[in-house]
Amino acid sequence: MPVEPACIVFFAVYARFLPLHIINLQEQMATFVLIHGLKHGGWCWRDVRRRLHSGGHSVFTPTLTGLGERSHLSSPEISLDTHVRDVVNVLYYEDLTDVILVGHSYAGAIIPCVADEMYKRISQLVFVDALLLDHGKSIRDVYGSTERGRRIIARAEKAGNYYIACEKDDLADWGLAGHPLADWAWRRFVAHPLKTLDGPVSFNHPTALKIPRTYIKCSTLIVRDLEFLARRGWRTINLDVGHDAMITAPGELVELFERIAG
Which of 58, 74, 79, 105 is catalytic? Predict the structure, then answer.
């Protein structure tokens, strides 16, 4: 059966432009691994994950042991190293490479430790309003030196249950007070193992230290001035939306992630 001329023209045009279309999609795709903060879980990235997926990106939002949907595994013995292992294992067992590893808040202590071991699999580190620790320091060393940190740690130690409890003050501190998703988030927060504050971080591999780093400052809760990071060669971005930006401003955060991915 002869082929109509119109069909020949269609397929010729399609064949001409399809490869370029596929190449462009491949260039736009990135692999994100998003790590949540204190008392949160992978659930907090819900709207960010949906937006990144719709943009063609691969996204992983693991929940750290003892939190979120893994709260049934909670134990006072959970340490920072436990949570580092959680993330290392995601990269290994999912066989991920060229990863943009993102850490929010507490996870700022996790992602450089992961990079120290998995540097061959990570292309960038992104800190979202996150803790910044020097090699050999613990979260207690840094967080415990602030007024809020001292108060929270003292309450946990006085209670004698080895957990940092969820408090209504968290909603205001994290920029959620009065937000439509405040109740949704509050019902999902889980008391955080106190022991995670005590383990010193370890990251001094020379190759890992060269991985490009970006800091996105959303509040003054942790870092007030980014100039010292810029002097170290970090990319720094101000996003004035409150600490829990992934809940309150997912669209703005995704735009930044895609810009960082290039």
Answer: 105
The whole-number pLDDT of residue 21 equals: 42
The residue behind tokens 């490009």 is: 212
Q: How many domains does the chain have?
A: 1
Rounded distance between C-alpha atoms, residue 166 and residue 143, angstroms: 17
Which pLDDT tens digit goes with each residue over 178-235?
999 999 999 999 999 999 999 899 999 999 999 999 999 999 888 888 999 999 999 9
- CATH number, residue 199: 3.40.50.1820
Of the candidates 108, 37, 33, 105, the one whose C-alpha atom is nearest the C-alpha of residue 68 is: 37
Q: What pLDDT digit, counting tens, does each position of 40-84 carry? A: 999 999 999 999 999 999 999 999 999 999 999 999 999 999 999
The whole-model pTM stands at 0.88
Q: Which domain holds residue 155?
A: 5-261
DSSP state of 61: -
Reported as a single tens digit per residue, the pLDDT across 131-172 is: 999 999 999 998 877 777 788 888 888 877 789 999 998 999
202 is a catalytic site residue: no
Q: List, as own/partner pairs, every contact residues 90-98 make where C-beta atoms lie below 8 angstroms and the sequence separation is at least 24, other chains included.
A: 90/33, 90/60, 90/62, 91/33, 91/118, 91/121, 91/122, 92/118, 94/60, 96/31, 96/33, 96/60, 96/121, 97/31, 97/121, 98/30, 98/31, 98/123
Q: For the chain, how long is the longest CA-to-CA vector? A: 86
Secondary structure of residue 32 in the 3-state scheme? strand
Q: Could you give the C-alpha distances from 121 to 12, 101, 114, 147, 211, in angstroms and in order? A: 40, 10, 10, 38, 11
Q: Give the Cα separation of 170 and 6 in Å (integer).
A: 64
Residue 113 and residue 88 in contact, taking contact as beta carbons nearer than 8 Å: no
